[in-house]
Automatic annotation (TrEMBL):
Catalytic activity: cytidine + H2O + H(+) = uridine + NH4(+); 2'-deoxycytidine + H2O + H(+) = 2'-deoxyuridine + NH4(+)
Function: This enzyme scavenges exogenous and endogenous cytidine and 2'-deoxycytidine for UMP synthesis.
Molecular-function GO terms, alphabetical: cytidine deaminase activity; identical protein binding; zinc ion binding
Protein's recorded name: Cytidine deaminase
Source domain of life: Eukaryota
Family matches, as Pfam families: dCMP_cyt_deam_1
Cofactor(s) listed in the protein's UniProt record: Zn(2+)
Record-linked NCBIfam families: cyt_deam_tetra, PRK05578.1
Listed GO CC annotations: cytosol
Ranges where the CMP/dCMP-type deaminase domain occurs: 6-133
UniProt: Zn(2+) binding residues: 58, 92, 95
Length: 138
C-alpha cells in the first residue's frame, strides 16, 4: 500500500539526513537511504566506503542489512538520495536485486537534495527480475 504523504515526507527527510553521515572519502559521492517498514518504522543507511574499494557498501544495502538485523522483513518503501541536483537518480543494479529479495512491491522515492522526489517502483526499476520465488519453480 502506498504510504501517506506525511510519512513519505518523513522518509525523504530521513534519507537526506542519512546521506550527511555517508563515509565516502574516496568517491566524495554521499548517498542516503531510508526504508519504511510495513509497521511504520524507518531504518536508514548511508554508503560506507573502504580503502579496498570493492568492499564499499551502498547506502541502500546498508539500510536493508540494518533493517533485517533489527528484525524487520516486510517493507513498503525506500527513499534514496545523493548530491545530484538536476536529475532523479536510481539505486545501482546490485541494490535493486538486494531489495527484490524482500518483495517486488516496493515504492521507491528518488529524492533530490532539495527534498523533491519522484515515485517509482522496484518492479519498474528491475523488470523481468530474478526473485526468490524462482528457486521453487525448477
Ligand atoms: O546505488 C548506489 C550507487 C552508489 N552508491 C555509492 C557507492 C559509492 O560509495 C559511491 C560512488 O559509487 O556511491 C550508493 O550508495 N548507492
Ligand atoms: Zn547500490
Amino acid at each position: 500500500m502506498t504510504a501517506k504523504t506525511e510519512l513519505v515526507k518523513e522518509l525523504v527527510a530521513k534519507c537526506l539526513r542519512a546521506r550527511d553521515l555517508a563515509y565516502c572519502p574516496y568517491s566524495h559521492f554521499p548517498v542516503g537511504a531510508a526504508i519504511l517498514t510495513t509497521g511504520g518504522d524507518i531504518i536508514t543507511g548511508c554508503n560506507v566506503e573502504n580503502a579496498s574499494f570493492g568492499l564499499t557498501v551502498c547506502a541502500e544495502r546498508t539500510a536493508i542489512q540494518r533493517a533485517v538485523a533489527e528484525g524487520y522483513r516486510h517493507f513498503t518503501a525506500i527513499a534514496v538520495t545523493c548530491d545530484i541536483k538536476d536529475s532523479f537518480v536510481g539505486p545501482c543494479g546490485a541494490c535493486r536485486q538486494v531489495l527484490m529479495e524482500f518483495g517486488e512491491k516496493w515504492d521507491v522515492y528518488l529524492t533530490k537534495p532539495d527534498g523533491s522526489y519522484k515515485k517509482t517502483s522496484l518492479e519498474e526499476l528491475l523488470p523481468l527480475a530474478f526473485s526468490p520465488g524462482h528457486l521453487d519453480k525448477k
